[in-house]
Every structure is written in structure tokens, then in C-alpha cells.
Amino acid sequence: MRRRQVEEDEDNKERWMVSYADFITLLFAFFVVMYAISSVNQGKYEQLTSSLGTAFTGENTPQLNNPPDGNNEHANIKGLYGQPSFIRPLELARRNDKQRREREAMTAMANNLANHLAPMVLEGKIKVMQNNRGVRVDIHDSLLFAPGASELQPIASGPLNEIAQALKANNHAIQVEGHTDNVPIHNDKFYSNWELSAMRASSVVRMLQDSGLDEKRLSAVGFGASQPLEDNSTPLGRARNRRVSIMILYDSLMPNQTDVSEITPDKTTVIRPTAPPAPEASNAPEATATPAAAQAPASAKPPAAASSKPAAN
Fold it and tell me: Do 61 and 173 fall into the same domain?
């Protein structure tokens, strides 16, 4: 018997639409769930917007609605209306930019100083350096002072005037530091190296002030032999340690005289002086002191008055 031939169905070319519809349905459900769990708190959103605007522009950004009242759950977070904000202003970027510009200006000033003092820099008598405090100019003591003296030599006026003229163009604070070696000194003028280093720093400060620098920018410090650059065991090391350093400080290191707060002791820890304890009472009768006149017998006569007449022979 001849088998019946089975007819094959033609492939449906639109079957992909079923999978595509399932994918779209799942994607739609996913975004619906994401939207449902992302309920936006209007108060938080406005404070975040204000904080971001303040952080990136440095100016307060007005909020859309009225300021929050005291019953708001975010009343303890400062924002534009006296409430703390979620994000504090990003001052770090602006501060870093300011410090970068200041450092570049100080580098240019250091190069200017090195060029003006080039002959002495090449001879090794002066060194110009830059560190995290500012620009430092180290001057060998032989260029400024006689051995064991604090009075400036006439030759010192040249380099100090050059430095003063270069520093007139800015308002940075200037700290003059005196340094010595560890060889002790003790005479009628200087009790130790501390006094010698302080007096040398003061002499340089006086010269800088006479050269036209404002005295409010100047200060003198004596370090003695406490901050050596080289080992004091060799003559060359001791010679390098005897120096005067002129520090031109960064503005961030200048003291703020207006930002001063007095520190007082805690009242609970103040110890007040107490009165001495009273003597204990005794059961014995107290002895009363009586004057000698009261203890004398009644029959005693008062002594005769001394006569001014000479005694008869």
C-alpha cells in the first residue's frame, strides 16, 4: 500500500515578533518598577540643586519653593535659608588654584632674586631655595658679620639692599632666622649662641626696614645651633651652619590677628583656695593674760620720779 505523503507547513517568517513582544514587555515592566521605587523627595531635590549650584559657582542658588519650615524633616540640615545643605561648597578646587598661582608667583620671585644675586650665588655665599613654607635665602655669615659679632659689616649692605628691593613688589611676610654652629660662645655681649643668633637676625631685620620694607612684614628669630644644615664635626660643615636665612612666607602661613579666641579654664575644674580649719575647742579653762601692773601687790608704791637735780656729794 502506498503511503500518503505528508505535506510540510511553510515556515512562519513572523515568529520573531513573539520574542520581540516578550522583550518589550519585560523592558516596560522594568522601567515601571524603577519609576515606582524612585519617588523623588521635592525638599531633598531642591536642597541638592541649591548645594550643587553653590559648590560650582560660589554663589547661593535660589530654591524653587518657599524656605522649609521648622517642622520639616530636613530642618536640621543647613541650606540657603540657614539650614545645613547636603553638600558643602567645594572650596578645595578654588583653594588649590589660588595656592598654585601663589606658588608660581613665588617661583618667579625666587628666580628674580637668584638673577640679582647671581655673582654671590655662583660663589656659594648665597643660596635661593623654595620649600613648603615659601622662598628661603641663605646668606653665609662671613658676608654679613665678623666672627663672633652681631654688627653688620659694610659689605653686607649690597646684598641686603638687593633683596629688599626685590621684596618691595609683594606683601608676603618675611621671617629672618639666625643660625650658628655648635661652638659655644660666652662673653660680656653674648651668653650663648642663642643670643648671638637672635642679635644677628635683629640686625638684618633693621637693615631691611631701613631699606624700605614695612616693619609689619618683618620678624626676627634666633635658632642658635638647633637647626644645622651640615655636620658640625668638620670645619666646612660648621661654616655652612653659620648663616642667616630670610624666609618669604606663603600668605597661608601669615597669622590672622583678627581670628583670635581666648581660652578660659573650665569652671568645674577651677580649684579655689580653702580657709584653714578652725582650732578644736578644749575642755580646760583658758588662761587669761593679766598685765604686770595688775599682779603687783597693792602695797607696792610706784617708783619715785627721777630727779633732774645732780646728786649731792
Answer: no
Bigger pLDDT: 287 vs 180: 180
Return all residues near 106 (Cβ < 8 A) that are at least 6 apart.
Answer: 130, 134, 135, 172, 248, 250
Reading phi first (left if > 0) and then psi (alpha if -120 to 50, else beta), residue 94 is in: alpha
Is residue 194 in a domain? yes
Instruction: Please write the tens of the pLDDT for every residue from 12-24.
Output: 777 788 888 988 9
Which grid coordinates belong to 187?
A: 662673653
Q: What's the pLDDT score for residue 51?
A: 73
pLDDT at 86: 46
pTM of the predicted structure, to 2 decimals: 0.56
**Are 156 and 54 in a shared domain?**
no
* Same domain? 148 vs 239: yes
The answer to whether residue 57 sits within a structural domain is: yes
